[in-house]
Amino acid sequence: EKETQPPRRYGQSRLIKKMKDLGVGTKSTRHHTIEKLYDRGYIEDDPPQPTALAEAVVEATEAFADLVVSEEMTAQLERDMTAIAEGEATLEEVTAESREMLESVFAELRESREEIGDHLRESLKADRELGPCPECGETLLVRQSGRGSYFVGCDGFPDCRFTLPLPGTGEPLVLEDVCEEHDTHHVKMLAGRDTFVHGCPRCAADAADESEDRPIGACPDCGDEHGGELAIKELRSGSRLVGCTRYPDCEYSLPLPRRGEIETVDQYCEEHDLPELHVHDGDDDPWELGCPICNYREYQAEQAIDDLEDVRGIGEATAEKLQDAGVDSPDDLRDADPESLADQLQGVTADQLRDWQGQLAG
Ligand SMILES: [Zn+2]
Ligand SMILES: [Zn+2]
Ligand SMILES: [Zn+2]
Ligand SMILES: [Zn+2]
Question: Is the complex ipTM more than 0.90?
Fold first, then answer.
């Protein structure tokens, strides 16, 4: 008996090799194409995996306009370009042929526009369904607010206003696992290296509702004036933080790790008069996080970009190129004109420079 094998996933380099074998793209465009797939939400994770969106789009186009998704079409266009470059075909011949091919493709797409839309909506909705709404019995869905943050909402909206928060980091992915108590799918938050499993959103909210704030000391912002206290709080989104008991009047807060049990130990930070925190996760020795204010200061210092290579997307080779062009520090990079600097750098675009400058502004 033959076992069914899951389709093989491609690491980025294997994906690039496959594109090469299929004649898709050129050496200089393949990396860029993969980046675009990430940007548009067609692949996620590393090694890259197709998203539900990608699968839905491929399914819909295969059903309604299969020439678009065929690698033959892309490869044919690439071959035509090469033919022009090598003088074997004229630009006119090739553009006429390409135009004809593309026109028939677009005609096909236009005709089935509504069916494609319906198909996409249906398959994407199926990927956002979590389980029954506790208030009205309709289906809970992962939704996105106008400001772009994700939350759990009811398909019965606006009649039903039931909602649950989701963590603020990453993009939610509905997993196959189901919480038995709530008949609700678990959720994973995709955030590159910070990806984590959030679990059942209803369990997370219940746990927060049942938890009590644990005061640890005076609030540095409003303790003297208003008697505000810092407390370890669990949020319904599953996050935890040290926040002021006078929230929302005082918004002072410090982040805490998502996982592990937080213990306050009988040792105090002399500077901030707060207890040190230990985080217990599994059987390992606890992580001695220390005073939450001192810990956050250290974290911020680590995040500071004080070297070109601290910028996401700049490696050793690129840093050297930048230095050769007179850009020695993050400050120099921030002040540079992207267009004229890009002209001096081989393989670096003005858009990339603007992205790096954006990181420095943040
Ligand atoms: Zn509902
Ligand atoms: Zn649950
Ligand atoms: Zn306060
Ligand atoms: Zn401290």
Answer: no
